[in-house]
Amino acid sequence: MSSTQVRTSAQKYGVQKLSGKGLKTGQLGLLAVVVIGMSTIAPAYVLTSTLGPTVQSIGVHLPAIFIVGFIPMFLVALGYRELNADTPDSGTTFTWVTKAFGPYLGWIGGWGLLAANIIVLSNLAGVAVDFFYLFLAQLTGQEAIADLAGIRWLNILTCLVFVAAAVWVSCRGVKTTKAVQYALVGLQVGVLGWFVIAAFSRINQGAASAVEFSWEWFNPFGIDSFSAFAVGLSLSIFAFWGWDVCLTVSEETHNGKRTAGLAAAVTAVVVLGIYLVGAIATVMFAGVGTDGVGLNNPDISENVFSALAAPVMGPFAILLSLAVLSSCAASLQSTFVSPARSLLAMGYYKALPDRFATVHPTFRSPVFATIVAGLISAGFYSLMRIISDNVLNDTIMALGLMICFYYGLTALACVWYFRHSAFSSARNLLFRFVAPLLGGLGLIVVFLQTAIDSWDPAFGSGSEVFGVGLVFVIGVGIIALGIVVMLLVRRTHPAFFRGETLRRDTPALEVAE
Question: 22-497 adopts what CATH topology?
Answer without folding.
Answer: Amino acid/polyamine transporter I (1.20.1740)
